[in-house]
Design a protein that fits this description.
Length: about 260
């Protein structure tokens, strides 16, 4: 009970001060120094509407923030559904194109996604998310769904594989130009793309010609390799220096086809 007395006294003092303020408004100024208490209480009274408006503004702000958060979540959900729809469309187009490649080659195809790419000083490789568990093995050919040559499987693990691309210095393939039918061996050259070797000086090879696989090795014929980008001739050399720009470099893709 003793602890409650200070609170009772304070409550009585507040009621008394308010009573003095209201009495002064009806009966004129009163004595015994109530005006000392009047100013703070009058300030609170005159600003009570402002405080109410301020409290109402805070409530409205919280309400708007909550509504905005709901709208954000709904927008994210809509964008997610749109992304899923676009991804499904992309997959459908991908499989339709690759069906044409399957009919052309008459071989079984395995589909995979790229998840890591490395272009270093000595190699040009990337990893795919398919491995021995789906029948992939070393040496299998890797292309786009249109039949553009990317490389070959150089290492196969249980659930992923390493692809050595045609830019890698260790990559070689027998090839020929589509228009002039000039043959040679295409070798990877990292940032320089590829070089078509064994093209003698007398052969009339042209810049811009399409280079395709000849089928004289274990690669299927007619796979698109790239375009002849630059030709250097020298009377003192037996062979021309023929630079090739790989075709897959001009494409944006995340999926590949493995030919079994």
């Amino acid at each position: 009970m003793l602890q409650k007395k200070p609170y009772k006294i304070l409550l009585v003092a507040i009621i008394l001060a308010l009573s003095l303020v209201l009495a002064s408004r009806h009966f004129g100024p009163l004595e015994f120094g109530y005006d000392i208490l009047e100013k703070p209480f009058m300030w609170l009274y005159s600003n009570s509407q402002i405080l109410k408006k301020f409290g109402s503004s805070i409530h409205n702000w919280r309400s708007l923030a909550s509504e905005n958060e709901i709208l954000k979540r709904e927008n994210i959900a809509i964008n997610q559904r749109l992304a899923d729809y676009k991804n499904l469309q992309s997959e459908n187009q991908y499989f339709k194109k690759s069906l044409g490649l399957k009919e052309l080659l008459n071989k079984e195809l395995i589909y995979a996604n790229i998840f890591s790419e490395v272009l270093g000083i000595n190699e040009a490789v990337f990893l795919i998310n398919r491995g021995q568990n789906v029948g992939i093995s070393e040496g299998m050919v890797v292309t786009t769904e249109e039949g553009i040559l990317i490389g070959k499987i150089s290492e196969a693990r249980d659930h992923y594989s390493k692809v050595t691309t045609i830019r890698d210095p260790n990559f070689r393939i027998t090839a020929r130009t589509q228009e002039s039918n000039i043959s040679g061996i295409a070798e990877g050259a990292l940032i320089n793309g590829m070089y078509l070797k064994l093209v003698i000086q007398s052969e009339n090879i042209k810049e811009g010609e399409l280079l395709i696989s000849s089928g004289d090795d274990f690669f299927p014929p007619a796979l698109i390799i790239g375009k002849i980008q630059n030709i250097e001739s020298s009377q003192g050399d037996t062979f021309k220096i023929v630079r090739v720009k790989p075709m897959f470099e001009s494409l944006s893709f995340a999926r590949v086809v493995i030919i079994k």
